[in-house]
Amino acid sequence: MSFLTRTLVALLAFTTLVSASPAPSLSVSKRDNSTSTSNSTCTTKTQRKAWHKMTNDEKQAYIDAELCLINTPATLGFAGAQTKFDELQYCHVWQSNVIHYSGQFLPWHRYFMYAHEYQLQTICNYTGGQPYWEEVLDTKNNSLQMADSPIFDTVYGFGGNGQGDDWCVQDGPFANMTNHLGPYYEISDTCLSRQFVPSYFSLGNQTYIDECMAMDNYWDAHWCWKSNPHSNAHLGVNGTILDTVASPGDPLFYLHHTNLDRLWWEWQAVNLTARLYDMSGGNTPPVWWLDKNYMKHITEAQIEGFNDPTNHTSLQHNLIMEGIVPNTTIESVMDIGNDLLCYEYVY
Ligand SMILES: *[C@@H]1O[C@H](CO)[C@@H](O)[C@H](O)[C@H]1NC(C)=O
Ligand SMILES: *[C@@H]1O[C@H](CO)[C@@H](O)[C@H](O)[C@H]1NC(C)=O
Ligand SMILES: *[C@@H]1O[C@H](CO)[C@@H](O)[C@H](O)[C@H]1NC(C)=O
Ligand SMILES: *[C@@H]1O[C@H](CO)[C@@H](O)[C@H](O)[C@H]1NC(C)=O
Ligand SMILES: *[C@@H]1O[C@H](CO)[C@@H](O)[C@H](O)[C@H]1NC(C)=O
Ligand SMILES: *[C@@H]1O[C@H](CO)[C@@H](O)[C@H](O)[C@H]1NC(C)=O
Ligand SMILES: *[C@@H]1O[C@H](CO)[C@@H](O)[C@H](O)[C@H]1NC(C)=O
Ligand SMILES: *[C@@H]1O[C@H](CO)[C@@H](O)[C@H](O)[C@H]1NC(C)=O
Ligand SMILES: *[C@@H]1O[C@H](CO)[C@@H](O)[C@H](O)[C@H]1NC(C)=O
Ligand SMILES: *[C@@H]1O[C@H](CO)[C@@H](O)[C@H](O)[C@H]1NC(C)=O
Ligand SMILES: [Cu+2]
Q1: Which intervals of the chain are annotated as region Disordered (predicted)?
Q2: What is the CA radius of gyration of the chain?
């Protein structure tokens, strides 16, 4: 399919965000404040674990919840979106031209992972946290160690490589699933496709992680994270997840971007004084980059929607979730342990 080849160029750019209203508090059962000694509503943080280290029961619960999202009818009236899973994808599709290659790249995707996790919990009764794909564990010997990776397990994983002319995934819990959105902005039924290029997985190895951890400001760090440790899985898995616009059509997208979020948080945690609220970047990707990635040009309405006083990404920048969860500001997603997000990474 031609979109497979068109997508590759799109990957190398993502970033920007800001808004003014206070973060709404989303109450779920885990935020039981009955034992709280302060006014904080985040008393028990959601634990986000590595897929490699979860029990089979935990993996099954996550897979079941994701299948539930895939099978739950849409409610928000988005063009082409038939399921709750599609609605999340739609939200990414229609903002793809401003959430990549801009300052909001990391905070927007952080909040998007939260929105996904929150939907699993509130719609599908999932009680765990959003798992992450600790990709460095699968990049030994400078290539994807496919056979060893529990991620691609056909029972307690996401299935393997695609097969046949269209590279449709035909094994695992998501075998033969249908995407209703994509490629790019199209509304069409396509299969979940993957076409592994194992050598790209080395872009997620420890050398590249160390390189990003050594950066000392948000701009340099975010540019580094979005380059190698972010591109690795998009390029290495290929197919649906390589489509920079419609990539959330592969359930693996959420585990990949949660890993990236974890790496950003690790970087922030090295010096919270300096980094907890360190934000910078532009709000709009260059036109040449949008064109290269088959993305729509940015509208005035989109720029107004940023609620950012200048061209530069500030903590006020509006993170837009199209009503899936309320919009919020970049500032309110900088601290993963705050009352809004209330999660932690478990190793
Ligand atoms: C995706 O995989 C196909 C088949 O291996 C390959 O031809 C194509 O170049 C890959 N795309 C990228 C961006 O590497
Ligand atoms: C938490 O505190 C709020 C505000 O005081 C209260 O309305 C709510 O019932 C409390 N929730 C629990 C589970 O105690
Ligand atoms: C809780 O909120 C009240 C009222 O806003 C405030 O006076 C008090 O200092 C707060 N307590 C803590 C521990 O933050
Ligand atoms: C979630 O739990 C509620 C209450 O027990 C139940 O009514 C609902 O059917 C459950 N939803 C799913 C998707 O299992
Ligand atoms: C690397 O590859 C070699 C040769 O295939 C193998 O013996 C070794 O176990 C691999 N190492 C890791 C860490 O996977
Ligand atoms: C997926 O589709 C292939 C090809 O049509 C078919 O052989 C296979 O049985 C299907 N698998 C599932 C789980 O539906
Ligand atoms: C990571 O990959 C690069 C390029 O393939 C290689 O030069 C480097 O040695 C690798 N690092 C590790 C820790 O494997
Ligand atoms: C954290 O960053 C601040 C500001 O750059 C710096 O003064 C401080 O030394 C750093 N702390 C550590 C532990 O590196
Ligand atoms: C989110 O922000 C956009 C842009 O400002 C706005 O159009 C939209 O109404 C907001 N959505 C919600 C649910 O507040
Ligand atoms: C925003 O920045 C871009 C790139 O630096 C520049 O071309 C554009 O004119 C700026 N727009 C505004 C409104 O300042
Ligand atoms: Cu994205």
Answers
A1: 23-44
A2: 19
Dist. CA 233 → ligand 3 center (Å): 45
Of residues 40 and 97, more confidently modeled: 97
Indicate whether 25 pLDDT > 70. no
CA pair distance 129, 46, nearest whole angstrom: 5
Structural domains of the chain ordered from first start: 3-15+37-345 (1.10.1280.10)
* CB 141 near ligand 5, within 6 Å: yes
| 259 contacts 135 by C-beta, under 8 angstroms | yes
Give the pLDDT confidence of 145-158 residue by residue, as tens digits: 666 789 999 999 99
* Runs of H (alpha helix) within the chain: 2-7, 56-71, 84-93, 96-99, 105-124, 206-213, 218-237, 252-270, 272-275, 287-292, 300-305
CA of 230 to the centre of ligand 11 (A): 10
Distance CA 191, CA 249 (A): 9
Measure CA 296 to chain center.
21
Res 335 pLDDT > 60? yes
Mean pLDDT throughout 225-248?
96
Identify any residues that bridge with 329 across adjacent strands, giving them in sequence order.
Answer: 318
What is the model's pTM?
0.86
Closest-lying ligand to the alpha carbon of 211? 7
In angstroms, the CA 20 to CA 228 distance is 33
pLDDT tens-digit readout, 96-116: 999 999 999 999 999 999 999
Residue 272 beta carbon below 6 angstroms from any ligand 8 atom? no
Return the structure tokens found at 181. Answer: 């959105």
Please list, residue by residue across 19-38, b when 16 or more beta carbons sit within 10 angstroms of its beta carbon and e when fewer do: beeebeebeeebbeeeeeee
Full DSSP string of 259-281 = HHHHHHHHHHHHTHHHHTT----
